[in-house]
Amino acid sequence: MINPSEIDLKSLPWLPLSAKTAFPKNPAIYFAIDSTGRVQYIGRSVNPKVRWQSHHKYGQLESIGNIRIAYLFVDSADLLPQIEMALIEWFDPPLNVASKPVRNSVAEGRTKKDKRLTIPRLGKFYKDLLKIDARINGRSIPVQAQELLHSKLEEREAVIKNRIEYLARQRGVTFDEMWFQVINGTAQKQAGDELTYKPGDEGSFLRGKQAMPLTRRSLVRGAITVGAASR
User: Fold this and answer.
1) Residue-by-residue DSSP string for 110-151
2) What is the pTM of this model?
3) Which of 15, 28, 35, 41 could bridge across to 95 with cysteines, CB 3.0–4.6 Å?
């Protein structure tokens, strides 16, 4: 039983971000930590080495520079989602929340070609609303639409991960396997109970166990191994 406030990040085993091919294969919570010691991002995986082969945060973390990935190994993979949520609440890493507005490159005297985004039909009201939002923020409409979409996906990241966790358990595969099946379009079509999923169902497999309270001061329950490993 470990209190999040007592976790010493400096004592955890770690590797530089660039060494992702050497990341461990054991279930773990991972911390992306910058050169000042601030936690930029927290995630979970039953196999970090596989997860980081195509991690959606790699580019952002690489642009920050001097990022190290520290690991908190967890004996029971079933506890990963609960532990991750509790630690995110405690450390409040910036890349686990909605992204901050990007700077206006035109106002800074630089020109930059926009990456175009195809915007579906919104209806006149929302189209005008998007146009106004873009102009008051000094951005083009495609860039502003992309920023809004990115922010919304950041907000839904935990929900999406929990849904993948639920499907993985229903189908008897790992989180990473389910993640890549969905990305690659090879996952079987959802049916039966999978279609009636509700947030929280991913924990239904822990029958007979009391749900862990996800508060800032909550204790992370379960067998957690904080192994001292060489760096």
Assistant:
1) --------PPPP--HHHHHHHHHHHHHTT--HHHHHHHHHHH
2) 0.46
3) 41
